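BUG: 3D viewer hangs when loading the predicted structure for this chain

Environment: internal workstation, default settings.
Expected: structure renders.
Actual: progress bar stalls at 90%.

Input used:
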Amino acid sequence: MQAIDTWATALGLASGFGLMGFKETPLNLLVTSAVINAALAPLTAVIASRRGRSPIVWGAIGLGFGMWALAATLLLMAPSKGAAPSPVPPPRAA
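Structure tokens produced before the viewer hung:
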């Protein structure tokens, strides 16, 4: 029984659901956290894709970390496309 308490606490904190003061049985907390993470994972993947990030990676992160992954995805800026083009062409070799 101690193992399920540990898993429920870990998943509850990782998903952010346990921080809300949800007082139920460990099995109920475990199932509820898993369902919430599974619901947030596709949303996290779609937002990551629209911001130029890998939807597969962020979907997997969303499965594990729920609302924390969603918050990180919302806070991340799109990756830069490289260095800005130089307004002056480089000098030619003589």
